Amino acid sequence: MERFTENLMYASRWLLAPVYIGLSLGLLALAIKFFQEILHLLPHILEIAENDLILILLSLVDMTLVGGLLVMVMLSGYENFVSRLDIDDHKEKLNWLGKMDSGSLKNKVAASIVAISSIHLLRVFMDARSIANDKLMWYVIIHLTFVLSAFVMGYLDAMSRRDKKVS
């Protein structure tokens, strides 16, 4: 009975595979939205104000960072929790594949969230005239919460890695 339970639990990791495929569909949706924004921008490029152009470009950078985050979570999550990716030798392989454990994935996700939050905060500041001060304050507080969380997670990870080396 114990062996059956352990095998069943181990096999249940494959329930995550459709979730990672779902993330790839989310990446497709993001790519469609990205190019939709570019197609909306191009016809008006000569008449658009500089600040508006910067806001649109920051939005595109934001989408790119989210896309990178999706790829990182999708591929390294699949490798860490479901199965190794069996990529042919003649195909290009990302150099970080197989080297990112769940701890480093967590830290990279936290750093990506901070970067995405930074871009969003910059977009808010570009349009600060039209945003109430209390709302601006909350944007900053939320961003600083992300920064502090990422720092603490990185610090704890570094401490645990150091403790493993000492042991």
TrEMBL record:
Database matches in Pfam families: UPF0114 (PF03350)
Location of the protein in the cell: Cell membrane
Membrane topology term: Multi-pass membrane protein
Keywords in alphabetical order: Cell membrane, Membrane, Transmembrane, Transmembrane helix
One annotated Gene Ontology cellular component of this protein: plasma membrane
Major subcellular location class: membrane
Segments crossing the lipid bilayer: 12-34, 54-75, 138-156
Similarity-based family: Belongs to the UPF0114 family.
PANTHER family named in the record: UPF0114 PROTEIN YQHA (PTHR38596)
Name of the protein: UPF0114 protein FKM52_11460
Organism listed in the record: Mixta tenebrionis
